[in-house]
Design brief:
By secondary structure, the protein is of the alpha+beta class. The protein is built from 4 helices and 2 strands; from the N terminus they run αβαααβ. A two-stranded antiparallel ribbon has the order 1-2. The longest helix is centred in the middle third of the chain and has 18 residues. The mean pLDDT is 88.
Length: 71
């Protein structure tokens, strides 16, 4: 899906390589969008959200599965 979106002209696609729980996805999204609104930098926002998710629960792989595709 990411490749198709990038080919269609979408600048950035954030996806997960594996299924994640709704709660983990919501927590990750909240951290991502908060940082993105503060900095306007999608890569910085992904990194911050990954670090927060990793520090919250080392058993949940949500922090590891997030992938940012940029065109």
């Amino acid at each position: 899906i990411a490749h198709t979106l990038l080919t269609a002209g979408v600048h950035s696609v954030l996806a997960h390589r594996i299924p994640v729980s709704d709660a983990s996805a919501a927590s990750f999204a909240e951290a991502f969008y908060r940082e993105f609104m503060n900095t306007g930098e999608v890569d910085t926002a992904v990194l911050k959200a990954r670090k927060l998710a990793d520090s919250n629960d080392t058993v949940d792989p949500v922090w590891l599965s997030a992938v940012l595709y940029v065109q």
